[in-house]
Give the backbone structure.
Amino acid sequence: GEDVEQSLFLSVREGDSSVINCTYTDSSSTYLYWYKQEPGAGLQLLTYIFSNMDMKQDQRLTVLLNKKDKHLSLRIADTQTGDSAIYFCAESPRKAAGNKLTFGGGTRVLVKP
Amino acid sequence: ETGVTQTPRHLVMGMTNKKSLKCEQHLGHNAMYWYKQSAKKPLELMFVYNFKEQTENNSVPSRFSPECPNSSHLFLHLHTLQPEDSALYLCASSQTAGGGTDTQYFGPGTRLTVL
């Protein structure tokens, strides 16, 4: 079945860039997502990328997709203390399979002042 | 209220209790989802409803019983739960359950503790 893997923890200094990595196994993945979860809150969609793209930029966020290696990354420029949260990578298969998201285990990002 | 709301935010129940979780979406969506988030596993999809019809049951034990009376409301009825069912239960909604850019929007979750 599908599998999505992420590293558990990332520590970064305020103002630096953060890079969160994700690998997935399902070659039929159509859309890949990044969600953010702050303490006590639900998941907030940050951005998504379609599988025929290799890069997407949205303000401080840059998503890179290497479809050959099934590797997805999220770069946060000028990281702020408010970016401290858990970040989840998720993949969605082709449309015929319905809207089933498979999530990674999440990367806890700690931003130090 | 806007977005996806869930009540209660916290719930403590004994193994013999019956309780229900409620989710309401104010986004005009037609698909709703229940997820389980526990410390030991990645976020797990439990149920999917599309236009009030259940389209997915991800091998969830029968002690969890979903109900979707209309496209805006989703319930999760709980009965005879086990301590390992303690988790954060997240509700989400999307325009439809058709896949792809039917982006899912999540509620804040209900933190459930089973004693």
